[in-house]
């Protein structure tokens, strides 16, 4: 999937026929699904994140002999101004989630971890766009494939590292969704994996403060402060509590 800013023109860059340039947060689009113009798809595949380009698409790479009435006449060459804001490769993830659970289980852990990391990236992308519900679903989807346990210590440690990040992400996302009970649950799951995790202690403290469980909140926040005495966020939360 990619996020692009685009403007399509006819003539000599003087007649705008489509654009998403006014959108503050362009949505994530999939090549071949949301972006179906052959020339544009080929062009985007040659670009990297942060790159801007101008494309001149002849009719066979654009709207063909029929055009697209009323805005695009038959046999028209079109021009596109494109900027790639972000690129996340979702193809591997989509293919993975189409498999049955049995098939997923037979894949090497390396592949599973890669899919989970990409799903988490998607979650982060939507989180920063303030689309917390979608972010939560992405984090949970990543978590859903990390249920396997391994006899190898190294592999188990990799699974746990991936899960810990997702627990912390979910805890924060549920705080944003004003579901403090769920935020506390995921914060505590993170603490089960890493009892000295200042971030997890801080999230649990925030959740308890939101639920007006003040002494519980104080306990979590003081423990977080012991680990990171100069963390401004933790100290501010303790002031709020006081």
UniProtKB/TrEMBL annotation:
<dbReference type="GO" id="GO:0034587">
    <property type="term" value="P:piRNA processing"/>
</dbReference>
<dbReference type="InterPro" id="IPR046357">
    <property type="entry name" value="PPIase_dom_sf"/>
</dbReference>
<dbReference type="InterPro" id="IPR042282">
    <property type="entry name" value="FKBP6/shu"/>
</dbReference>
<dbReference type="InterPro" id="IPR019734">
    <property type="entry name" value="TPR_rpt"/>
</dbReference>
<dbReference type="GO" id="GO:0003755">
    <property type="term" value="F:peptidyl-prolyl cis-trans isomerase activity"/>
</dbReference>
<feature type="domain" description="PPIase FKBP-type">
    <location>
        <begin position="1"/>
        <end position="88"/>
    </location>
</feature>
<keyword id="KW-0677">Repeat</keyword>
<keyword id="KW-0802">TPR repeat</keyword>
<keyword id="KW-0413">Isomerase</keyword>
<keyword id="KW-0697">Rotamase</keyword>
<comment type="similarity">
    <text>Belongs to the FKBP6 family.</text>
</comment>
<dbReference type="Pfam" id="PF00254">
    <property type="entry name" value="FKBP_C"/>
</dbReference>
<dbReference type="InterPro" id="IPR011990">
    <property type="entry name" value="TPR-like_helical_dom_sf"/>
</dbReference>
<dbReference type="GO" id="GO:0007283">
    <property type="term" value="P:spermatogenesis"/>
</dbReference>
<dbReference type="GO" id="GO:0005737">
    <property type="term" value="C:cytoplasm"/>
</dbReference>
<dbReference type="GO" id="GO:0051879">
    <property type="term" value="F:Hsp90 protein binding"/>
</dbReference>
<protein>
    <recommendedName>
        <fullName>peptidylprolyl isomerase</fullName>
        <ecNumber>5.2.1.8</ecNumber>
    </recommendedName>
</protein>
<dbReference type="InterPro" id="IPR001179">
    <property type="entry name" value="PPIase_FKBP_dom"/>
</dbReference>
